[in-house]
Amino acid sequence: MDRHSEHGNVLFLILIAVALFAALSYAVTSSNRTGGGSTERERAGLVASEIINYEIALRTAVTKLQASGCSLENISFDHPGWGHNFYRHTPPSTDNCKVFHPQGGAVSFRNGLTWNPESALGPGWTVYINGETSVADVGTPDSELLMWIFLDDANICDVISDRLSVPLTPDTVSTHVFGTYDGSFQNLADNFGDDLGSAYVGTYSFCNSNNAYISVLAAR
Prior knowledge:
Blueprint: H1 3-31, H2 39-67, E1 127-130, E2 145-150, H3 154-164, E3 205-207, E4 212-218
Helix pairs in contact: 1-2, 2-3
């Protein structure tokens, strides 16, 4: 690939990240103009804002690392806070390609338990990042780099869906989502947005009917 084409691809990634950042930031800030509601709804609103902000931070970091020369396959989410090493690449990624490392993406690590304190999944298993599933009309038919956050409180997904204007629909994937991203991708047969009437077609962020928040960190 020549340098002009490479620079054009980086610029395109940055423009997409800026547009998504603006849309998600609006979703967060506009929520501050709505008041009232029950204590549960207020808590759900606060958690929804934290989740969307975390998504913005992760997607921005991935775009930054790609622009700095890290291939998507070399970008690592390894961190001791997971309580396991399943995000570790073989061979390990360099520090400058690690999302949570100060010399890399410099994102503050969150394991998601404060968003889902009653989770039966345990530490390191409320948030998943993997490359096994595609979202229809996002990038190519290849699987995306996705973040999943599993939530026991349906109010949080209700708030997120309202803010992003993406309704909850019974569009689910039948295949497992419990792989962890170690630099490899799989293309599974069942993907988001391939059900008739799905609201998820071409959508980068949404909650599904199982109270899981799904976000495309990088399209392929």
